Amino acid sequence: MAMAGALAGCGSGSTEARDTGGTITAYIYGDDSVDVQRAAVASFNKTSSVKVKLVEIPGADYVDKLREAMNSTSAPDIFFNWGGGSIKPYVDKGQLVDFTDLIQDDPKLNSAFLPSVLKAGGLKDRIYGIPMRGMQPVILFYNKSVFAQNHLKPPKTWDELEQIMATLKGKGITPFALGGANTWPELMWLEYLVDRIGGAKVFAKIQDGDSSGWGDPAVLKAAETVKQLVDDGAFGSDFTRVSYTTGAAPTLFAKGKAAMHLMGSWEYSTQLGKYPEFAKNNMGWTAFPTVAGGARNAADVVGNPSNYWSINTHTKHKDAAIEFVKTMASEDYAMSLVKNGDIPTSSIAGLMLTSAPNPELASFQYVMVQTAPAFTLSWDQALPADRSTPMLEEVSKLFSGKTTPKEFVAAMKAVK
């Protein structure tokens, strides 16, 4: 095949002869955005002798199921991931095809995606993932109806946010929906607070392997702010039993029982699938507010630059698997993401946003990411599992009141 020469040295083993038939298994995180990938698989299968079988795994089970599969004889040929630390165990074991040379030798593929996003799909300057979903910055969403009824405006500062919370609690409305049963939605609060208080450099030090970074004053201040939010009832009284992945937190937000929701940009696609009228008419959005005395990096962003397809080096159909993931670079695929409410990581995305379900939100996200001085990858994806797992455990303890802010800092400094 045309890319055979470029694949020499790409991953382990040599490129096999042209595929004449068979099946590729592709694991994907099952959520409301998967319709786009279903369509991509159906389109690919119309012309390929090797067919892709999409295996949708519920979000709450995805990481564990993937880990189990990759350690077995039934590992998927292709799988969805977040890049960074999420793929380190598989890279260390030589399980992932290295796309670096392929991308460099393919002008169309090389120019299809934003360089920073491609880089985030790998480790140590080697690329192991092809972007397959949109940019996913974490955004502060708000319910327009609830805000209008209570004469509120989106907050730009933490002081304004506290005033809004006081007004909402006085009316018996929970300020924020929070899927605390999953922990990772809680993590978003710490990610933004640490950034707004101390700047992106604080977590960058931690990500580079220096656990003393957890002792930065910004981490303690962020943890103390979280405790204050919990104590003040910002998330309601039973948020630790509310799940995001089952739709409970999005429902509270859509139904107006919670006025705001700090969540990744995929919240729009989630609401579009579950509560389309709310998504189209009553969802508002704004940047996370500044914190007085902090770094004032109001333009910094946290979240996921994208999600990625990676290929197992042991696949029997490497050529076909690569041909499939390369379809993610097509203009048609980028447009399908736009129509689903996502913002592609392609270099031409800005020209397509008028076709988005909500062009205004699409443009907000695009500008948000394009102008951000720093885009910090979600901590649980930026760190390898041996550090992210205990971190999530400590975050859960902090939000549930089982540990103090100082104890949280001490516990995280001890994670090596």
UniProtKB/TrEMBL annotation:
Pfam families from the entry?
SBP_bac_1 (PF01547)
Q: Which domain of life is it from?
A: Bacteria
What start and end residues bound the annotated signal peptide? none
InterPro entries, alphabetically? Bact_solute-bd_prot1, SBP
What PANTHER family would the database entry show?
A: ARABINOSE-BINDING PROTEIN-RELATED, BLR3389 PROTEIN
Could you tell me what this protein is called?
A: Extracellular solute-binding protein
What is the native source organism of this protein? Peterkaempfera bronchialis
